[in-house]
Amino acid sequence: MSTAVEVESPMRSRVAALARAAAYPRLRYMGSKYKLAPHLGTVFNEIGGTTFLDAFSGSGFVGYLAKALGYAVTTNDYLHFPSVISRASMVNETTLLTDQMIDTICGPAADSRKFIQTTFRDVFFAEDDRVFLDSAWSHIDSMTGFERDIALAALILSAARKQPRGVFTISGDLSHYDDGRRDLSLPLRDHFRERAAEYNAAVFSTGQEGKAVTGDVFNLAKTDYDVVYLDPPYAPPTDDADYTKRYHFLEGLSDYWVGREIMQKTKTKKIPKQASVFANKRTIEDALERTFDKFRDAGAIVMSYSSNALPGDARIKELLGTVKPYVEVRMVDHQYHFGTHSTAARRSVQEYIFIGRD
Ligand SMILES: C[S@@+](CC[C@H](N)C(=O)[O-])C[C@H]1O[C@@H](n2cnc3c(N)ncnc32)[C@H](O)[C@@H]1O
User: Fold this and answer.
1) pLDDT digits (tens, 9 = 90+) for 15-37
2) Which of 56, 283, 353 gets mutated to test ligand 1 (max ligand atoms within 8 A of its CB)?
3) Does 213 contact ligand 1 (Cβ within 6 A)?
4) Which atom, in ligand 1's list, is nearest to the CA of 59?
5) Dihedral in degrees, nearest 10, Cα atoms 351, 169, 235, 271
6) What domains are defined for the chain?
7) Ligand 1 centroid – CA 42 distance (Å)
8) Model confidence over 231-270: pLDDT tens digits?
């Protein structure tokens, strides 16, 4: 359905763009840049230009912020669900999910499918919630275009908000995580109504053409954007930054696991890990070198990284300097939550923003 949504002129002020971005339907996502919005907004506004690539889009927040700043935005991620979210919230200029569609999705099922109920029994969510997920999908399956994207984005955000800590590495009886938060007790059907309203409210028009791609960053065809923003996984000194392990349920929910292998012997019924050369300290340097080289024709390359990860800032500056002669590094204090609620600790790290220009 097309209705009148707010039309905004290209290149809005930073303040107006930040206000717009603050209302983004927020997904708790490892490495999300929601809190860095004021700093990134300043950097992007200083650089200017009209075309923008968010090459590791995750929750979709940065691409949405860039649209609010007036850019024509392309987002990319090697997982599938980020493209669904970006299409619903950023590429979509005018389409809303009507009350009637929301009622239908929340009403009786259109067929008798039980895949989620049976696959994730005693793994994720209560029976009523799993029944709702199957039932919602029985309607979404026949939807198309942005309406389908909004419905799926709302379903994905509902599942993420209801799952304790927002990650699907923990399963079974999770009652000890219940700290009384409304998100944890709200039935998924009610979540869905609220999350759909949030996505509807996020839709705005700038008249610029956006795009959301699913694929490895090295497979992107176009490279000469005015701004290329890189926010790869932070390669930790030990272990690796595995997004599939944490968000496999959201990934499967984005296409109802069609054609996907499920590792039945795993406790959380994972899908196979999608390895990333950015997630590991042994492969990160080569990966960064190749990425900078790929985007050497961009107007500017902006990259987020953390002092908590490898390689260090001096090495990244050196690597970026091989394709962009002027490299500036800005540092922002950032606090991360670590551990479970019983061992929760706050640790302060520096969040770097590298800016490479000609
Ligand atoms: C730090 S997160 C991005 C967070 C995002 N900027 C936000 O604000 O939500 C890194 C993302 O890179 C994606 N990723 C990892 N390896 C990739 C690759 N080779 N190509 C494209 N995306 C990749 C992950 O799926 C993850 O969503």
Assistant:
1) 999 999 999 999 999 999 999 99
2) 56
3) no
4) 9
5) -130
6) 14-357 (3.40.50.150)
7) 22
8) 999 988 887 789 999 999 999 999 999 999 999 999 999 9
